[in-house]
Amino acid sequence: MKPNPVLKKLGFADDERVAIIHVDDVGMCQASIAAFAELDAFGLVSCGAVMMPCPWSLEAAKFARQNPDADLGVHLTLTSEWETYRWGPLSTRDPQSGLVDEEGYFYHLAHQAQEHADPEAAGREIVAQIEAAKAAGIDPTHADTHMGTLAHPKLMQSYIQLAIQQQVPPMMLRLDEAGWRKVTGEHTGAALDEGGIGMAVQMVQTLEEMGVPLLDAIEGLPLDSDPALRLEHAKQAFDALKPGITHFIIHAAKDTPELRAITPDWACRAADYETFLKEELRQHLHDSGVQVIGYRPLKELMAGVTL
Q: How many beta carbons lie within 10 A of that of residue 168, not counting itself?
């Protein structure tokens, strides 16, 4: 594909490597908010996104009100993955919506949500989540998707429509057909069949023509690797970035009893928090030439984009 036109709009050369260092799952638990607050102050992480259906989203919104310069989006959520710590929709608890499982919460896995969700009900739910964020005092800089659930033919159109209506950039890749096939093969949340791949290719072309800023890659640190090697893995991951704009995901949280009780991958989340507070990593990024931005510059490019 041709170089991302957003690079030139933001003052970068076509061959520059630009990373959006993004904290997922802010508001999932108290430990995620405390970690984001410190990382935001340190300044290496450039943004994060709040899970509005989660119990600690109110604390995340309080942080946003007290820190209006913080770059926070909405982590649109249609799944609730943990065994005993669950959440559900803001817009409805009607089983006919296809949004809730037999326990009354979001389904655990992306493919379950994609299979069962009524598209109109899902569309209403993601609108409810971004409106709840705004009502709580969050000025969203972007909208992304928890566990990749919205990367599905049934749901993608509602996601893009919401982003344009709300004037926030979506976490959306500018891929050709081969690129979408590769992503579909590597990420179970992006369950695109033949028709979905064709739709995604056409959507990319349309959105780019409209001026919607898109991403070249989504990378990050896996939650199933050795937490003791987190710093080295982070350096390697940034070194491997290709030219263009990369949404780089981490899942930072402080090591607390609550976090340990919620998720078996707590050690990697705590390692993300500790690693991205290291001057050594900041210096490594500087020396490697990777440019770090948040989503605010992309949001400014959304001004005037209409359906």
A: 21
User: Under the phi-then-psi rule, with left for phi > 0, alpha for psi from -120 to 50, and beta for the rest, what region is 59?
Assistant: alpha
Contact 245, 297 (CB under 8 A): no
At the topology level, CATH places domain 5-301 in TIM Barrel (3.20.20)
Q: What's the pLDDT score for residue 181?
A: 82
Coil/strand/helix, residue 106: strand
Residue range 75-95, pLDDT digits in tens: 999 999 999 999 999 999 999
Taking all residues of the chain, what is their mean pLDDT, rounded to a whole number? 95
Residues 6+ apart with CB under 8 A from 277: 38, 39, 42, 44
Q: How far apart are CA 215 and CA 170, in angstroms?
A: 9
Query: What percent of the chain clears pLDDT 90, i.e. is strictly above it?
Result: 88
At 85, list the tokens: 């710590």
Which residue carries 């943990």 as its tokens?
Answer: 82
24-81: pLDDT as tens digits: 999 999 999 999 999 999 999 999 999 999 999 999 999 999 999 999 999 999 999 9
Dump strand ranges (E) for the chain.
Answer: 17-26, 47-50, 72-76, 143-145, 217-220, 244-250, 291-293
Q: What angle is formed at CA 169 by the lines to CA 208 and CA 92, rounded to 5 degrees?
A: 125
Structure tokens given for 131:
């409106």
Three-state secondary-structure class, residue 13 = coil
CA 103 vs. chain centroid, Å, equals 26
**Do 122 and 53 contact (CB within 8 A), yes or no?**
no
